[in-house]
Amino acid sequence: MLKNYMEDAVDSFLPHMLEQYPDLCTCELCIEDIKAIALNKLKPAYFVTHEGLLFSKIDEMTTQHKADLTSELTRAIDIVSNNPRHPKQ
Predict the structure, then answer these.
(1) Domain range list for the chain
(2) Which neighbouring-strand residues pair with 3?
(3) DSSP 66-84
(4) What's the rounded Cα separation, in Å, for the pair 32 and 26?
(5) Model confidence pTM above 0.90
(6) 11-70 per-position pLDDT tens digit
């Protein structure tokens, strides 16, 4: 199974980021847009083995990894909140 670990990292980190944006629309469309925008800017981390997953999880603990996730998710949240693909509520 080929998997991009960054998808898991974004899924794990995004809920904590959303707590800082109580007025943000959290419909499925907006959340998927945020994830897509962030993932397109983050360096992919593909793995196919259990060992590859372990190396990806170790990298997740680095300060730079957290900074990259925070930066790209913040950027994506700003883009989607200012340009939702549905009428603002």
Answers:
(1) 3-82
(2) 47
(3) HHHHHHHHHHHHHHHHHS-
(4) 9
(5) no
(6) 999 999 999 999 999 999 999 999 999 999 999 988 777 665 555 555 666 788 889 999
